[in-house]
Amino acid sequence: MTQAQETTTTSAKPQTNTRTLVGRVVSDKRSKTITVLVERRVIHELYGKIVGRSRKYHAHDEKGEYKMGDLVEIAETRPISKTKSWVVTKLLEKARLA
Description:
Radius of gyration: 18 Å
Number of strands: 5
Strand content: over 45%
Distance between the termini: 62 Å
Number of domains: 1
């Protein structure tokens, strides 16, 4: 294989190192955008206690099919807007009705 052929075959592979996170939808008020709360547990550096940390991510929802309370998986992608660089990949669990 020549150098030119090697570069075309390697760039054609799908990206496998995409970051994915699982979180709960906390807002679906904007069109094509949802807010996902991702919670994680970490060990406190000094005291060794397990503490909860959370962060909100804005994710792209093209069809507007995800509602508040749904458990979704989001994946990192190119910047879509100023605050939105994540896209919803799949629905893991529908929201429970009260």
